[in-house]
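Q: My hope is that you can spare some time for a protein that puzzles me. Underneath my words sits a plain record pairing an amino acid chain with its backbone structure tokens. Those tokens are not coordinates but codes from a learned vocabulary of shapes. Thank you; the sequence and its tokens follow:
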Amino acid sequence: MAEVIYYVACSIDGFIADEQGGVDWLGSEQSEADDYGYASFFDSIDALVMGSRTYEQVVGFGEWPYATKPCWVLSQRPLAPAAPAVRITSGEPNEVLAEIDRAGHSRVWMVGGAQAAGAFLERSLMTQLVISVIPVVLGRGIPLFQGVGSIREFALERTDRFQSGVVQCRYSAKMHRTQAAS
């Protein structure tokens, strides 16, 4: 089964976006000199998964930035694909991951958002978390995960600290998805 990596940035208080879904606050920590390992990470994955709101936000930025990789968008409503490699699906996370496996992909980036990430985490399908904590407090917003009803344990593998104050933590799931309790 493919690895699913939630590579995401969040505020100190655990939000991935403000209440309206905005991420303008992320720009304050971006520099041309340091991409926080993004380019290397992007080169290491061969498929993407995201929720419909994240998809709509990315489409709203302009040109589709992931044209070189296939992308599955989880949605219960009709959406237009932004590129030929975009697949809109109403399938359950297990079904989507099985489809990704059948397509021969082994490393999947869970781009977001909170509901999609929560759905994969709740089903023990998330194998790794790479969380970049941005030194800002939002107070309110969209949390890292939504819809998770039980404890999931991860082991800290590595922490990197950047000049900007960003701290990036890499975690691996303690329980492999095939061993998940029913």
Observations:
- The longest helix spans residues 93-102.
- The longest strand covers residues 3-11.
- The chain has a mean pLDDT of 91.
